[in-house]
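Sequence in, structure out. Go.
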Amino acid sequence: MISGKPKLRGDLLISQQETKEGTGFVVKDPATGRFFRLKEVEHFIARNLNGSTPLDVIRESVEEKFAVTFTAETLEQFIQNLGRLGLLEKEGRESGFVADRPRTVRGSLLYLRLKAFDPDRLFNRLVS
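Output:
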């Protein structure tokens, strides 16, 4: 069971994307450089994790807005997943997540991902 009222980290960068499947949201964790994709319902829940809204209210809002049955267990599992990914603020800390030093090589021996550069810096320079 989740204790307290979870809160999404304030430093996350969220952008909306339109796809063939509908509206999606991409979350960038600036501390780790990782990206996550959320569907519209998931984004709605994450946006409501503000540290003050009770989980029952969030669950009822989801059921009302999307006309679905949404159990408390499903909501708790989703929030636990966000916590495991480091997207929630830690209790007792203002900033929440302190990342390890970013690695340039990720993956396993059979599948390697190399971090070449952060395209955001390039695009920011081109826009400026």
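Check: The radius of gyration is 17 Å. Residues 93-98 have pLDDT under 50 and may be disordered.
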